[in-house]
Amino acid sequence: MAGSKEKSAKVKKRGKSVNKKGVFVVVFFGGILLTSTIMFALPPPPPTMSEDDIESDITKTGTPMDNFPDDQRATFCGVEEAKSNSFVTEYKIPTLCTQPLAIKVGPDGNIWFIQTNTGSIAKFDPVSEQFTEFENSFWPEQGRTMSWGMDYSPDGTLWYTDGTYDSIWKFNTITETFDGMSYPVSESGSLPQKLEIDGSNVFVNDFTGGKITIFDLVQNMDDVTYMSVLNPIPEAFTGDLTIDAENNLWYTNWVVDSTGFLVKLNLADYQNEVSIDDTETTLEKYIHVFDFPHDLNTANGLTTDQNGNVWIVDTSSSFFFRFDPTTQEFTKYITTEPPLSSYGNVTGVIKTPVSRPYWIDTDNSGNLVFNEQTSNQIAVLDVQKESLVEYMIPSKNPNWADCDLDSSANCGVAQIFGFDTTDGAIWFTEWAENNIGVIDTTKPLPFKTNTDKETLVLKKGESGEITLTITYADISDSINSEIKTSHTASTTTNFSDLLISSSRNSSQGNTEEIEITVQASETSLTGNYKVLLGIGNNEVTVSQYVDVIIES
């Protein structure tokens, strides 16, 4: 492990090797405590069987499962074999309980991913369907981490983050060797999270440490230099980042359920002044901050589209947001409601299920792709058409939802935390099921949707009609299909500013027209809202957005 040299004086240089935190903590997935009754911040057990092992019911297997007690292995290591459906193919990782997380498609088409319960990196060849796992000889015995970010460098190396040991690792795919360096830790503590390579720089957000760190991309880890951009809100979380086409750095800085900023930094001018002065540099000349809109409480993933808009997903709701840099306005969007199979609700305590969009990216066609953590789905948004396709991942782990553990029903979530896109495909990891998988987005969908209007204007207390036309690839696709609606207006358990109802009619050939009624309540708030109308089955949901304007 190498140290690093600081270019500006914002963060003290650290030259020691791996920093071992006292307790391995993964309960804070992007700021959200998952609704599981299982504690999963347990430190790894000692390497040999002891009286404490026996009392804790830990059966030694000689596999990565030994990092968890027997009664937690189903939760963290998986419960079933890999599955497939019409769009998704899953592959079981040969080593048990590796907890795959960050994933990247290489230029040669091979799939690379981090095994966070072993510290290894793995390669999957989609042609031969063979796995190759590379052991990191520097990794502490029974060490565990959360590696959220990974990116590919043109020199054939993969860079990735290590949240437990405050490190940045580099794996050379040609020589098949590891190298690493300590991450510059803030006084308040650090958690290097996402990672993006742009030009000759490696960008890392320090989720808990209040900064963005920019490393020089070099061959020798001993010669790495870096600069750090400090947060506008001290002691607040630093979310995902991206660099737009005009070389602006965008990221989020926020406090859960309190306040937050979308931050824009003129990267070229800022880096130029820092490199010239080599001293503390004020951000005031280069930075712009934009207050979060209402309902954006937990900003995790962030990306920009081909139009220069910034998109942010909110992990404590079903919302995601578009920011227009020209008008400086936010627009709120919503996913469909999670299917019952993803949350179970066997106790009946879940009154308003949410999908929790987690990370977001763009594909080669300009579409947005994001994972819905508690819907067990991956979504694709056509930005131009404002249409949404949500693909259901077939594997589910019941221990992460309110499922009946004694039932054979396919219930729960697989914790789909990592994904990457390539032409016609989305590759992803299942952290709780020890799988990787791929969605074939080139396959024809069973439904096509269209609405007779793009905008509906209502006054308070009024209702209006929208016709949703469904075209089936085959009329049999209408069997077991379900009409799905959601909206971004204010909603509580017992009240909503918008009420949506639907009426299905007999199909005419392969076409069905659905009459949708949208009613604004007498006390609804004026404003512009997104209504999502669609149809789905147990494999895929296809939907269309309509603008609804409520006037006074």
Structure write-up:
By secondary structure, the protein is mainly beta. The chain has 2 domains: 5-440, Methylamine Dehydrogenase, Chain H, CATH 2.130.10; 447-551, Immunoglobulins (Immunoglobulin-like). Strands 25, 26, 27, 28, 33, 35, 38 and 39 form an 8-stranded mixed beta sheet that branches. A 5-stranded mixed beta sheet has the order 1-16-15-14-13, with no helix packed on it. Strands 4-31-30-29 form a 4-stranded antiparallel beta sheet, with no helix packed on it. Strand 6 and strand 7 form a beta hairpin.
Question: Roughly what percent helix?
Answer: under 10%
CATH class of the largest domain: Mainly Beta
Q: Strand pairing plus helix content: what structural class?
A: mainly beta
Query: Whole-number radius of gyration?
Result: 24 Å
Q: Give the number of helices.
A: 4
Main β sheet profile: 8 strands, mixed
Q: Total domains, how many?
A: 2
Total strand count, please?
39
> What separation lies between the terminal Cα atoms?
63 Å
CATH architecture of the largest domain: 7 Propeller
Low-confidence stretches: 7-49
Q: Write out the CATH superfamily name of the largest domain.
A: YVTN repeat-like/Quinoprotein amine dehydrogenase
Global shape: globular
Per CATH, what is the topology of the largest domain?
A: Methylamine Dehydrogenase, Chain H
Mean pLDDT: 89
> Which strand-content bin applies to the residues?
35-45%
